[in-house]
Amino acid sequence: MQREYPDLPWCRYADDGLVHCRTLEEAEVLKATLQKRLAECGLEMHPDKTRIVYCKDRGRKGKYPNTSFDFLGYTFRPRKAKSRKRNSVFLSFTPAVSNAALNSMRRKIWELHLCNWT
Fold first, then answer.
1. Which residue among 13, 20, 91, 109 has its CA within the 20 to 30 Å range from the CA of 56?
2. How far is the C-alpha of 49 from the C-alpha of 45, rounded, in Å?
3. Would you give per-residue pLDDT tens digits along the chain (118 residues)?
4. Is the Cα dihedral 61, 30, 2, 70 positive or negative?
5. Sign of torsion, CA 97 99 104 108?
């Protein structure tokens, strides 16, 4: 990534990763390039997890089928946010705990049987 696409911000954790592209075309070319490179190494992208997502907010108003994704226990999607300076509400692309992570937390708390403690 640093050699071929030094201007694209990206992050990685173990076998998961995110790349921030400016256009849909750029994202599609990058996805094809990564698939080719991984195939050379005997690896492949997960077909259900790999997708192009549009980060919709007040500045990006386009309509695309995918506008949210889960990464490391968080769901990133368009959400209403409150401006501290102007005391107004606007649309922002922000993270929050994912439903899967919440269910896992609830299950672990339930397994502690806190209601039986004195």
1. 13
2. 8
3. 888 888 999 888 888 888 999 889 999 999 999 999 999 999 999 888 888 998 888 888 778 888 889 888 999 999 888 888 888 898 888 899 999 999 999 999 999 988 888 7
4. positive
5. positive
Location of structure tokens 């050699």: 3
* Under 8 Å between Cβ of 88 and 58: no
pTM to 2 decimals?
0.72
**CA proximity to 15, closest of 75, 98, 68, 71:** 71
Amino acid at 71: F
Which residues touch 101 (CB under 8 Å, ≥6 apart)? 73, 74
Among all chains, which residue has been given the structure tokens 């993270």? 95
Per-residue DSSP letter, 56: -
